[in-house]
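Reproducibility note. Readers wishing to regenerate the assembly model reported in the main text can use the exact inputs given here. Chain order matters: entities are listed in the order in which they were concatenated for prediction.
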Amino acid sequence: MASGNKENQVLSKIVINGKHGENSPYFDGWKAYDSNPFHPTKNPQGVIQMGLAENQLCFDLIQEWIMNNPKASICTAEGVSQFKYIANFQDYHGLPEFRNAVANFMSKVRGGRVTFDPDRILMSGGATGANELIMFCLADPGDAFLVPSPYYPAFVRDLCWRTRAQIIPVECHSSNNFKVTREALEEAYNKAKEGNINVKGLIITNPSNPLGTTMDRETLKSIVRFINEKNIHLVCDEIYAATVFRAPCFVSVSEVMQDMENCKKDLIHIIYSLSKDLGLPGFRVGIVYSFNDEVVNMGRKMSSFGLVSSQTQHFVAALLSDDKFVNKFLAESARRLGARHNHFTKGLEKVNITCLPSNAGLFFWMNLRGLLKEKTFEGEMKLWRLIINEVKLNVSPGSAFNCSEPGWYRVCFANMDDETVDVALKRIRAFVGKETGKPPLELKRWKSNLRLSFSSRRFDENVMSPHMMSPHSPMPHSPLVRAT
Amino acid sequence: MRLLSTKATCNSHGQDSEYFLGWQEYEKNPYDEVLNPKGIIQMGLAENQLSFDLLESWLAKNPDVAGFKSDGKSIFRELALFQDYHGLPSFKKALVDFMAEIRGNKATFDPNHIVLTAGATSANETLMFCLAEQGEAFLLPTPYYPGFDRDLKWRTGVEIVSIQCTSSNNFQITEPALQQAYQDAKKRNLRVKGVLVTNPSNPLGTTMSRSELNLLIDFIKDKDMHLISDEIYSGTVYNSPGFVSVMEILNERSDLNDCGTGASVWDRVHVVYSLSKDLGLPGFRVGAIYSENDVVVSAATKMSSFGLVSSQTQYLLSAMLGDKKFTKNYISENQKRLKRRQRNLASGLHKAGISCLKTSNAGLFCWVDMRHLLHSNTFEAEMELWKKILYEVRLNISPGSSCHCTEPGWFRMCFANMSEDTLNLAMKRLNTFVQESNHHGCTKKRVQSSASSRRKSLSNWVFRLSSRDHRDQEER
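Running the prediction on these inputs yields the following structure tokens for the assembly.
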């Protein structure tokens, strides 16, 4: 057989088409990090990872809870009586206590202003699985979803790859802080219609990745009105809901629905996960919450392809049913995120680097338009490579998020310890000083405080030994595995 | 404009399937030794509940694992953050070692070629996404696991074409049957991308013979297509002949060592595994795809993002399966218990004048011959008998038609998801039923209905069952 035929024989089109999205130049930042990762003592000149939207600020709280609640594990002496039942439990309805606990938690995150029905909760393989699942339920191959830009890069994979749906960006601009306007929605919608594209819905991320902002009530209402009028679905990815650290409060679409008359509930669906709010991406807890009965019914059957491990369901059920812990965690997590965000952004202000004013998320949207040699995306990429190779920070360029304007970068701040933050700040300041010709500010104060003995577990030799998880692993870690 | 996708709406029928009744009736009236001794005994669930004590005692001896500790140090944070779709290296190593151990080390597996997925359900679907698409088909020998209709076809658009196997040779795959299936696909304008077999077989409870495996390899070599071997029951083989994995056969064949078409066969054979049956851990959602084809591994790895295994679970199992003393003891003890239990079932059935497939040597179930109890050689009669067994004998068993069997009268009965006492009670009830039926002079003669009505009933039945609600996953 000819080799051309051979390729056809081996793989399906969706594999060959490469819509998994991992071939973008965006991958370069990861390569740079993987081949030269920062370590406070072993590799202080290495690349600092600031492209990873992880929440590492509150593990101590969860760890403490685990130690005090051995029954949450089916492996401990206290919990092993449940082992057999849990290990055997593969019902795609999920453990009732898991659904109840998640519904309760989701409500708390929204200040108790809405309640959620545990029977509408579907499990999925993380938010990644949830987003794909909802698309399989709502869109046929070729159908389109509108997505406000800038948006999370892996949406291309999650929403389009195996579903063969397509996404149509709705452009947002810095002129109004990247708000989603009715005009922009109409424009994108109409353009699609003209091109004979069947628009099935709109997906928004609120709080936004990469902007770190929450959507205001009026914008949300306008969006709900828009989808109602066009009779298209609204998928609200609310996975950052509990990362709001400053006013304004988070307003969920579920709250807005309550206030609006004639709102077609059947069109509205929420995506949730514990990866950001609780910092547990490894546990793969994704949730689809739909107000549409048919979607719940069908989606539940589809969830067979990515159920949450019953061991994890059991653990999460115990954790999130502990009201005292949840209340304490939510408050403390917000406080720490706010403090970290503040420290970083204030530090940048000292060298006249501004960020989009934000109140949520694990990152901020940094404005380096002033440093671009050319106000183009090539200029943005050039600056980005400079930042990676010389400043040794892996930040994410706005173009990776399909931003319509060059010069913006997403900087993650919750995936490192305080000392690393200061190293990063120092490097940025030095770099900006060089770029703008201004001398770096006097940094005596922090220098004398810089300690070389880091207490963070993350760098503990034993823990990072090859058998567990090596930063120097020969296998490159895909950006889309963790660039979330 | 239709509000939901075609996929979301196409399966809405099938909820009236009579087969579904079995599950409903069970839920309404589940047997309990103390609370409901007259209730329905569940024998439609291919679960392995025989060896939990071994797992529990291992846990008791390994408290570190419970507290997210490794060598006394907390690794909670690292596990919480670990979402690399390449999987936990220590878990993959432990898993491939376990797979090799089950195969008596006659086949070994490279951890870099294994892809972790959320159960075998996800593994099978993922392989379909990688290897085929709408307008294409995989050939499957009947009878097969009902869940394949969902797992292989639903969201992928791929079709299944049956390789018809019959009791005349204990349902083994034959060359004519393979060729016929291939032609059937052609007639339906479907391009055949490969063959998928379950070895050991569900629902037959038998291991595939060497000659069948060689036949399959000859076939896919000749037709330039894939072979997927779902080996999720590989650790449940309790009798001779032992388990022979397709990987073992590949190793043995010299015609596959040369360059050219032979070598590429290695690129087209893929194994699916899971810990749901061998270890009895279906809740943990641990599945795997193994392939020597780098491109498939790479694509499947990316796709596994949609259903990764919880790091918490990967860690627990890496410790457990990494304990070679434990695995050695578990594998042999588990097999002993399965053997004993199957013997109980077989002898209980025998007393009632019912036989199992005589080649039964694996799985968590037996393929039981009740053809002589049908009043006609039709699927209607099979349905009638099934309902009698459900309502009068109060046993929920799986009728062969739900597995796409082409001959009426065969049933799958599970034996590893209940206590020994419960199994004995089930056998007693069945025996009573058969004696009473004999006493009342029910005819044992099979009425030969016309071939066409048999075909008609088959297609209707299959149609009703091909899109069924909810308990599918639990039937494995």
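We highlight two features of this model. Chain B touches chain A through 92 residues (CB under 8 Å). Residues 12-16, 443-476 of chain B have pLDDT under 50 and may be disordered.
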